[in-house]
Write a structure and sequence with these properties.
Chain lengths: ~190, ~210
């Protein structure tokens, strides 16, 4: 019977979080993700369907709304925000480009935003491999530009960044809670 | 009688645990995705928006370990030495090596996008100089050893790796772990002679020493 009790205990503790028991790295609450332009470039590549050069990639972490009001509360207006969670959000540009009309050389950068109601300041900074915005240094900015945001009727639960093609270039669309921000790129 | 009823409780508990697990991850009918902690009344399962978190989420490991955090604390050097970006499939009760991951065949060391290793300066692995730069890492697992390969065909999906672009191959032994690792894990760690990239999943651990 003791053995049975032990098995039940093991299963009960094992199912929700098997790794916690052995102090293994747990799955992050805000898992990381990656978006390419062309969209799904790695998949297109293995399917031999690539018909545009690789232009950009973001690597970011994805916090969730979890019933909270995000903008103006969890993410304060007027304060620098890391556009994600954990490691600073990284953007890599494989060609020189223009972001919202402003020139930017190809390279690997970190990316931040200062949200305001209706508009965000988007910041591209050259200090890479950082954690969040905790050591953000405006002296290392390479670009700052203001974009308008839109209201989303249906709130986005998970913070998302994704590229999409437009008639004139490429947009990086950022969505979380009831806000959608669109950053226009030209390559 | 007593034993039978206790066994019944056992199965009830098992079912409850199963249900709990099922509730935690809701499958998206449109693809290989799940939604974590869905909040009712939000658009978590609306395909119109790019939401939903991957079943095998991505992660990042630096050397020095936790470089971005050390940097924030003012304890890190100018540049990290290495970084790996990989996705983390889970065991889910399956035997991984020799079953889910076949012996003798290329395995992407993760899931989804090909695993990417970047060295921010030249390093030495098994007496070979590996120039600074970015590589796709994959492996050919065997019961007693792994052949870890660094490949120059970047930004690809892990299931199709062009082996003609292999740059380096390193044979490393594998060892058994005391406990099964639920999540595939890659971690840079300090050693007496430099550093190592430790790779663990299920009951297998393989270590690639780097100087």
């Amino acid at each position: 019977m003791k053995r049975l009790a032990a098995i039940v205990f093991l299963i009960a503790t094992f199912v929700p979080s098997s790794e916690a028991q052995f102090k293994l790295p747990v799955l992050d609450k805000s898992p990381m993700d990656m978006s390419y332009y062309p969209v799904d470039y790695p998949v297109l590549k293995v399917q031999n369907k690539v018909n545009e050069p690789l232009l950009a990639r973001v690597v970011y972490s994805r916090p969730q709304k979890n019933g909270r009001r995000v903008f103006g509360e969890l993410v304060e207006y007027g304060q620098i925000w890391r556009l994600g969670a954990n490691e600073a959000t990284e953007i890599e540009l494989y060609r020189d480009c223009r972001i919202n009309g402003e020139k930017l050389r190809k390279g690997r950068y970190t990316m931040y935003a200062i949200p305001q109601p209706g508009a965000w300041t988007i910041i591209i900074n050259k200090e890479t491999d950082s954690w969040g915005a905790f050591i953000y240094d405006p002296k290392k900015d390479v670009l700052r530009t203001e974009i308008k945001t839109e209201h989303l009727e249906e709130a986005a639960e998970v913070f998302s960044m994704t590229f999409c093609k437009t008639e004139t270039g490429v947009n990086l669309v950022i969505a979380w809670d009831d806000v959608k921000a669109t950053i226009p790129f030209n390559f | 009688m007593c034993i039978a009823s206790r066994y019944k409780n056992f199965w009830l508990l098992l079912c409850a645990a199963g249900l709990l697990a099922a509730c935690e991850q809701r499958h998206d009918p449109n693809g290989n995705k799940v939604t974590v902690n869905p909040t009712p009344g939000t658009s978590a399962d609306q395909p119109a928006l790019p939401v939903g978190v991957d079943k095998s989420p991505m992660d990042m490991s630096y050397y020095p370990e936790n470089y971005p955090v050390l940097k924030m604390q003012g304890k890190a050097g100018e540049k990290p030495v290495a970084r790996v970006v990989y996705s983390r499939p889970q065991k889910h009760g399956r035997t991984v090596f020799g079953n889910l991951v076949e012996y003798g065949k290329p395995w992407r060391l993760g899931a989804n996008e090909a695993t990417e290793i970047e060295f921010f300066r030249t390093v030495t692995i098994q007496q070979k100089k590996v120039p600074a730069g970015r590589y796709v890492a994959y492996c050919i697992p065997h019961p007693d050893k792994w052949v870890v390969k660094l490949n120059s065909d970047l930004y690809t999906w892990g299931l199709k790796i062009d082996s003609t672009k292999d740059q380096f191959a390193f044979e490393i032994p594998v060892s058994k772990t005391n406990y099964p690792y639920e999540f595939f894990t890659m971690q840079f760690q300090s050693t007496e002679r430099g550093m190592e990239l430790a790779m663990m999943w299920d009951s297998v651990k393989a270590v690639l020493p780097i100087q």
